[in-house]
Amino acid sequence: MDLLKNVLDLITKFVTIGGGLWAVWGVVILGGGLKDKNGPALQSGIWQIIGGIMIIVAAGLFSSVIVA
Which residue in 11, 29, 35, 49 has a CA-CA distance of 20 to 30 Å to 60? Predict the structure, then answer.
């Protein structure tokens, strides 16, 4: 049981880091869109930031459900 908990904790950490990187890359895309005044890039960057935040939240919820 302890091994399963450790594996799930490791997966949760990787998913959280991945979501953070996804959100940071969305900020880069958003910045590029703002510099070029490119509407589709702005939209893409905003949605990517939101997606990264949702991944982080889902990983946190998954972690809290598994531990309980």
Answer: 29
